[in-house]
Design a protein that fits this description.
mainly alpha; 4 helices; single chain
Length: 86
């Protein structure tokens, strides 16, 4: 059972990373590209920055599903910007 949970977690993490990569490529939200540049400028490697950003996205996706509310792109963008300040 633990292996299944780990596989699900890895799949979810990869999906979140892919979503962040798409956001950066699409320029929406624009904060995604800005935060990626800030994080890598501050010494994080690209993959570590993606993981941090994916973690923020995962929190917002989980809240959206749990609360059955629309995805709040503005709150997500705001939290991404907090990463760059950290």
């Amino acid at each position: 059972m633990d292996e299944m949970k780990q596989a699900e977690d890895e799949f979810a993490q990869k999906a979140m990373i892919e979503a962040v990569e798409n956001q950066i490529a699409d320029g929406h939200p624009r904060e995604a590209g800005m935060v990626m540049m800030a994080l890598t400028k501050n010494g994080l490697d690209h993959d570590a920055a993606l993981e941090k950003m994916a973690d923020v996205l995962a929190v917002h996706v989980a809240a959206t599903m749990e609360n059955q509310t629309p995805f709040d792109i503005n709150a997500y963008a705001r939290d991404l910007l907090q990463l760059a300040k950290g």
